[in-house]
Amino acid sequence: MENYNSKDWSDFLNSSLKELLQMKPMQFSLITPSVLPINAGVYLITETYGHTESALYVGRTKNLRQRLYTNHLMGSTSNARLKKYIIHDENHSCFGDVKKAKEYIREFCQVRWVFQDDTRVRGAIEGYFTAKFFPKYGIAEEH
Questions:
Q1: Long-range contacts at 53-57 (CB < 8 A, ≥ 24 apart)
Q2: How far, CA to CA in Å, does 22 sit from each of 15, 17, 25?
Q3: pTM, entire model
Q4: How far apart are CA 34 and CA 120, in angstroms?
């Protein structure tokens, strides 16, 4: 991706967004390690109430399987940022309860992703997706 002009980058980022939105979201209730790829990529976690889907979190990782299953779904709040945000959100029904947050993620959340091996490009895509979706969690703190 080096030496791309701004139009090329814009086209690339828009095609990544289109690819993400064309992917059927995977419900966390159906996620097991074997159904997730071990590829590097950028992901969008959303929640659905009724027919409304809202962005909760955008992230990037070297290993989608480990990040999504081991960290976000099964992990403790030290390595599961989404879970941490939910349990620290005083306006959320799961406030203060890790077990309820895990159940909430399983019941109401889903994930989509795009593959990207290059670390710097993953960062650019993550920033673009964050700007496009303005997720509820994960943009207030640096990580």
A1: 53/25, 53/110, 54/136, 55/133, 55/134, 55/135, 55/136, 56/82, 56/109, 56/135, 56/136, 56/137, 56/138, 57/81, 57/82, 57/85, 57/135, 57/136, 57/137, 57/138
A2: 10, 9, 9
A3: 0.91
A4: 27
Q: How far apart are CA 135 and CA 57, in angstroms?
A: 5
Q: What is the mean pLDDT of the chain?
A: 91
Phi/psi at 131 (5° precision): -65, -35
Residue 120: strand, helix, or coil: helix
Distance CA 38, CA 21 (A): 20
User: What's the chain's Rg over C-alpha atoms?
Assistant: 15
User: What is the arrangement of strands in the sheet containing 26-27, beginning at the earlier edge strand?
Assistant: 26-27, 109-115, 41-49, 52-61
pLDDT digit string (tens) for 54-79? Answer: 999 999 999 999 999 999 999 888 88
pLDDT digits 0-9 by tens, 6-45 = 789 899 999 999 999 999 999 999 999 999 999 999 999 9
